[in-house]
Specification:
Layout: H1 2-19, H2 24-35, H3 40-50, H4 56-87, H5 107-121, E1 125-126, E2 132-134, H6 135-138, E3 169-171, H7 177-185, E4 190-199, E5 210-220, H8 225-240, E6 246-253, E7 256-265, E8 282-291, H9 293-298, E9 307-314, H10 315-323, H11 336-340
This protein binds phenylalanine.
Phenylalanine binds at residues 174, 176, 215, 253, 256, 287-289, 310-312.
Length: 343
């Protein structure tokens, strides 16, 4: 009888499938397939309904006993499986888990931490200052003249109580105010670094309104420009490798004299000239100089007795050169595909 053959096939499939169950998910899928509302077994009722009336009694009996047999086999499987799983401490380690991604540090944090470690190993200690800063610390005490362009609203975020005559508070435009705060309350000799966020009214492929800097300051009675050169060259070598050349170019900052801009040979073309270094073979990396006597005077340190150097660098810039990134905005877009690359 054709219907009988269907029952035999079903039983064979059932016996084969049940052998393959090894966890609760398999068990549930199996249950749905064979005993659920639209299962193979419920289809058997249609076979019975469609069978001719002489076949119906015998077919009905066969279907019933098959159902009982299969249900018993299923219960047995269920019991033995849950016993096994219970023995494994009720934690079913065979169930496939959700894929998850172990978090990693943001590239800016990585570079910042690396820079901090290098300076710490060179004897610098850490100092911090506020992001909301008084005009005095950000500009006046650092020898910025009143008409300096950085004091313009185009460049600096002045805060609400800003008025033409009373430029009181602002978001610091650099980490240099920490120098002033530190010098005001500490007696030399000292050497500090100050990492932190800084803010400038600027946004394009190489500028974001908020970015990170690390500042350095060393004051004593015998510090010279040669010390500054050595420290910065050593820093660049440790971050980028000892095959990198450095170059100190005269520059200007109101708070250092003499001032320099420090370049390093391009990590991409090694000085030959490429798109990243705009065919010059060099990339600018930081600003530095000897602390201006006026700054020392402003914090009541005698320039006749003490001198020192200061430097400041943008962490995004270092990260861009280190990782070959040509758009600073990538650091702030929180695109997980980008951030995962720094695992
Ligand atoms: N503050 C300067 C800037 O933001 C960098 C700097 C720091 C230069 C210390 C000289 C000395 O561009």
């Amino acid at each position: 009888m054709e219907e009988m053959q269907k029952l035999i096939d079903l039983r064979n499939d059932f016996l084969k499938d049940i052998e393959e169950i090894s966890n609760r998910v398999d068990l549930e899928n199996f249950r749905v397939k064979y005993f659920g509302k639209k299962s193979i077994l419920s289809d058997l009722m249609n076979i019975l309904r469609d069978a001719s009336s002489d076949k119906k009694p015998i077919l009905g009996k066969e279907i019933n006993s098959l159902k009982i047999e299969l249900k018993n086999l299923f219960d047995e499987k269920k019991n033995s499986l849950s016993k096994n799983l219970d023995e494994c401490n009720t934690f079913d380690k065979t169930i496939k888990g959700n894929e998850f991604f172990i978090s990693n540090f943001h590239p800016i944090t990585l570079v910042m931490n690396e820079a901090i470690e290098v300076f710490k190993s060179l004897g610098f200690s850490l100092a911090y200052g506020p992001d909301i800063e008084a005009d005095y610390y950000n500009f006046s005490a650092l020898n910025f003249p009143d008409e300096h362009p950085a004091r313009d609203m185009q460049d600096t975020f002045f805060l609400d109580d800003y008025d033409e005559n009373k430029k009181n508070f602002l978001l610091r435009t650099h980490t240099s105010p920490v120098q002033v705060r530190y010098m005001k309350y500490h007696k030399p000799p000292f050497q500090i670094i100050s990492p932190g966020n800084v803010y400038r009214c600027d946004s394009d492929i190489s500028h974001t309104p908020m970015f990170h800097q690390i500042e350095g300051l060393a004051i004593s009675n015998d510090i010279s420009f040669a010390n500054l050169k050595w420290i910065l060259t050593e820093f660049i070598h440790r971050i980028f490798g000892y095959d990198i050349n450095t170059r100190f170019r005269p520059s200007f900052f109101p708070f250092t004299e003499p001032s320099v801009e420090v370049d390093m040979s391009c990590v991409i073309c090694h000085g030959k000239g490429c798109r990243v270094c705009k065919d010059t073979g060099w990339v600018e990396i930081l600003g530095a100089g000897m602390v201006h006597p006026n700054v020392l005077k402003n914090v009541s340190i005698s320039p006749d007795e003490y001198q020192g150097f200061a430097f400041g660098m943008g962490i995004e810039r270092i990260a861009m050169i280190k990782y070959g990134i040509d758009d600073i905005r990538l650091f702030f877009e929180n695109d997980i595909r980008f951030l995962k690359k720094f695992c």
